[in-house]
């Protein structure tokens, strides 16, 4: 049986936070349009951000599956993942979510959605990432501290 305390106690599932913020931003844009970019630039930049985010998410997911650990941050970590994109960022899946969010906000030309990225990133940092880091350090000890010392938190 799994120890119920063996989890990072994040305050929100990250994809739900990003989807909720994007939905609010799109509704606000519908009520009070505040475009970001004119012309086709938003499609190129937004599309590239979405594609990059999706590719990074798939690479990170594959690395976690390959290590045999849970992807869901509400479940216990069973292994410290240091391969794939985790060689460059301790949080590549969250970087990927942010890239996709910004890309979708640009594609929708929604200044409101971009503005809402700020509180999303604050919630992610304080309510998810720092909690996960405390949990991983407690669970993996020196292995995690060594990893943390050589790999950046985000990029």
Q: In words, what does this structure look like?
A:
- This protein has 155 residues and is mainly alpha-helical.
- The protein has one domain.
- It has five helices and no strands.
- α4 (111-140) packs across α5 (142-150).
- The longest helix is centred in the C-terminal third of the chain and has 30 residues, at 111-140.
- It starts with 13 loop residues before the first helix and ends in a 5-residue tail after the last helix.
- The model has no long low-confidence stretch (mean pLDDT 95).
Low-confidence stretches: none
Count of structural domains: 1
Strand content: under 5%
Task: Please give the share of residues in helix.
Answer: 55-70%
Count of extended strands: 0
Cα gyration radius (Å): 17 Å
Biggest pleated sheet = none
**SSE order, one letter for each helix or strand:** HHHHH
Average residue-wise pLDDT: 95
Q: Which structural class do the helices and strands define?
A: mainly alpha
Number of helices: 5
Report the span from N to C terminus: 36 Å
Shape assignment:
elongated
């Amino acid at each position: 049986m799994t120890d119920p305390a063996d989890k990072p106690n994040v305050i929100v599932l990250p994809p739900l936070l990003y989807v909720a913020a994007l939905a609010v931003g799109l509704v606000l844009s519908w009520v009070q349009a505040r475009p970001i970019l004119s012309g086709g630039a938003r499609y190129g930049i937004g599309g590239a951000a979405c594609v990059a985010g999706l590719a990074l998410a798939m690479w990170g997911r594959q690395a976690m599956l390959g290590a045999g650990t849970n992807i869901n941050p509400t479940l216990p970590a069973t292994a410290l993942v240091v391969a794939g994109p985790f060689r460059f960022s301790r949080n590549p899946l969250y970087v990927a979510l942010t890239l996709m969010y910004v890309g979708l906000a640009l594609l929708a030309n929604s200044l409101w959605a971009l503005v809402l990225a700020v509180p999303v990133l604050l919630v992610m940092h304080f309510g998810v990432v720092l909690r996960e880091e405390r949990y991983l350090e407690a669970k993996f000890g020196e292995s995690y501290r060594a990893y943390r010392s050589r790999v950046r938190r985000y990029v």
